[in-house]
Amino acid sequence: MKKYRILPVTAAVLLTLTAAIPAPAAEEQSYINKEYETDDTLICIGSVSKMFVTTAVMQLSEQGKINIDAPVTEYLPDFYMADPRYKDITVRMLMDHTSGLMGTTQGDFLLFNDRDRAPYDILLSELKSQRLKADPGDFSAYCNDGFELLELITENVSGMSFTDYVEENICKPLDMQQTGTPWNAFRTEEMTDTFINGNIPIAQDYCMDIGSGGILSTAEELTRFGSAFFKGDTTLLSDNSKQEMSKTAVTDEYEGSYGLGWDFVSYGDYENAGVQVISKGGDIQNQHAMLLVAPDEEISISVLSAGGSSSENQMLAMALMDIALAENGTVVEHSKPQDKETLDTVPDKYLDYADIYFYDRGVAVVSFPDKKYMQITDLSGDRPEIKQFLYTTEDSFVLMDGSVESGNAVQSKNHTTVYFKNRSGTDYICSDEYMEIGSNGMSFKSYNMQRSGKITVSDEAQAAWDARNGKKYYLYSGKYSNTLYSDMSCMKLKTYPEARGYVNGQVITDSDHAQSALSMPGGRDLQDIEMRRENGYEIMDITTAALEFISEDAIGILPDDISEVSLHTKKASWYSTGDRSDRTLTLEIPENASVYVYDAYDRMTYSSYMTEYGNDVPLPVNGKIVFLGEDGGTVKITQ
Fold it and tell me: For the whole prediction, is pTM greater than 0.90?
């Protein structure tokens, strides 16, 4: 086995490729800059971690300790839910995302420069009050909670902590000395630098849901892990187990091609060249990863980055895969979609599809103006977003840029084609969208929207939610190190005159409850909402995510004479900055505390985790400031 490494092309990207091909000549490596980070820099690999817990479960299955088609309750007797269907969830369903679980119990699962067992410890208690979004096994929808349950199963069955299990049974056999979890690989001096808002240095983020996203590794070692899935390599697993993992039970092309742990076990362009390529991507807030493996050709590629996304890493990994395959004599052709032949009339059979449709975060109206084209009007934003589609000779609709009515419309460069599909008696809109990065690209097929059924809501309940229309709620729960304060600090509620009974993407059930009605392949991280009052103000509780938000009505102006703010464990202290333009604070922030500042549009302008900012913080006009910490702590303020 020969190996070559492609070191960073930017300071934020780490690449490693292992393949049975010759190493490049010295002149081909002339672009390597020794000032860049190297391929032994630690990065949190996000959801690529799912391959580690899946490997652990399959190892235990080979030992006869787990039957992957047995109910989860057989290995986790403390696991139960409000929905009795949970008893039908099998271990396999956790690994291929068909469990029907709502998605992600977020809570404190992403932290800045910190470790905490809280998300791990509360998962089972949080699930006790949750329902399922679908019958177990009905369809696949990406689910982080399922892989946290797999982590618990691994511990219960093996009698070891997951950290110890990974070290003894995965890392040591592969001589991966830097790979581990935040509990044994918490080495900030070896971590990649991370940035926010483009180029502002910020503390590293860690995922504490280890089974779903918390493994730390390097580009070199992650590539070595990928090589353990080569055909004939039995270091970690038998070929039978690896083949089981790299098959999909999905027959609906718009549902995806999940294997066990793997995101994709089928790529059309590679299959046309006679090659199976399997992949797993991962994203946390500021760190991203992609693992791409061709088992029969013995090629393993990892692309890790601080910035960008796993999708962009995937495009780069695919380009490297093409190079490696070409060296072996296999040329892969990636055909780009061509413009569709369009017609100026929509067939009558589609006119009955005009209706309200919804997705996980919003509502849209589908119409067919004068039978000339289809229009989808998304009502969820501050302004409606309108997309127009022409009917094609292939019995589909293609996205147009510009105005169809004016005659100045061209087919979108993303070559997005949509279809209506009926599944189990419900109508859906599915899409096939081409994503291009550089000279490479691929198509992503997915379910996008579900047709609304008949919604019955009382006038009283509708009025209660209409009174909240346009109101903002600010993240109130969570630890001081919770990264969501830099990413999702605010949520706004919206009801729709055109779609009675909906708030955001949820169906109103009574004056204080709204529930996701989405039951759609690919529909992940669904939210049920409960409103309650605390100290005279409304709290919005996302009961399926362990997150709470406080009404903007509770936020007063930061007093001019304030000299300190008392801190409270997992309870944020919010203030408005007022309309003065000359306020600057000097902050004295204790350990185990943080402060964030946002402008009038709720965009973060300061975080105490910005590593080079200092303590003098100008306050934006009509913005917000939040203080986070633990009981007994205070932030000292000089104005």
Answer: yes
